């Protein structure tokens, strides 16, 4: 498997829609908004098998101190090959001079993946959100 990684936002709306729906994420049902959000993001790393988008990591940052990693996903047909881990390491390298790189796993079962890549559960941390959808 010859996966190519890039930080160029060269994906199409249809490619991100397909990827997000492949993992069952509701964001994929809103391709216009999703594409706009990704294009406006600080950093988007993507993984490609030829012209097929197979993985994506999105980062929002304040340009100096804090980077928030959001959307770490890999097409189910490509999971288990280290693609997500490679993209997380790309994020860590890009933001190595920032004070914080944060991630909020939506499911507690995913915490072990992030711990494997050096992240730690914040002492007394609690995830919170308002969902307007």
Q: What can you tell me about this protein's structure?
A:
The protein is α+β, with helices and mostly antiparallel strands and 133 residues long. The protein is 28% helix and 25% strand. The chain contains four helices and five strands; from the N terminus they run E-H-H-E-E-E-H-E-H. The protein has a five-stranded mixed β-sheet with strand order 1-2-3-4-5. Helix 3 links the parallel strand 4 and strand 5. The protein is globular and about 40 Å long. The relative contact order is 0.16. The mean pLDDT is 94.
Question: Care to give the gist of this entry?
Answer:
The protein is 28% helix and 25% strand.
C-alpha Rg, in Å? Answer: 15 Å
- Listing every helix as H and every strand as E from the N terminus to the C terminus, the arrangement reads EHHEEEHEH
What is the typical, i.e. mean, pLDDT?
A: 94
Helix content: 25-40%
Main-sheet strand order equals: 1-2-3-4-5
**Which secondary-structure class do the elements indicate?**
alpha+beta
Give the overall form.
Answer: globular
Low-confidence stretches: none
* Helical stretch tally: 4
DSSP, total strands: 5
Note the gap between the termini: 38 Å
Major β-sheet profile? 5 strands, mixed
| Percent of sequence in beta strands | 15-25%
């Amino acid at each position: 498997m010859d996966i190519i990684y890039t930080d160029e936002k060269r994906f199409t709306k249809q490619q991100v829609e397909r990827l997000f729906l492949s993992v069952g994420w509701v964001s994929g049902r809103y391709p216009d908004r999703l594409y706009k959000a990704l294009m406006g993001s600080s950093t988007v790393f993507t993984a490609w098998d030829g012209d097929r988008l197979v993985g994506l990591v999105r980062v929002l940052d304040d340009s100096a101190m804090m980077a928030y990693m959001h959307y770490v996903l890999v097409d189910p047909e490509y999971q288990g090959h280290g693609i997500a881990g490679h993209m997380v390491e790309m994020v860590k390298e890009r933001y190595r001079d920032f004070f914080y790189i944060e991630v909020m796993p939506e499911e507690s079962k995913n915490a072990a993946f992030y711990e494997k890549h050096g992240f730690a559960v914040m002492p007394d941390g609690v995830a919170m959100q308002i969902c307007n959808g």
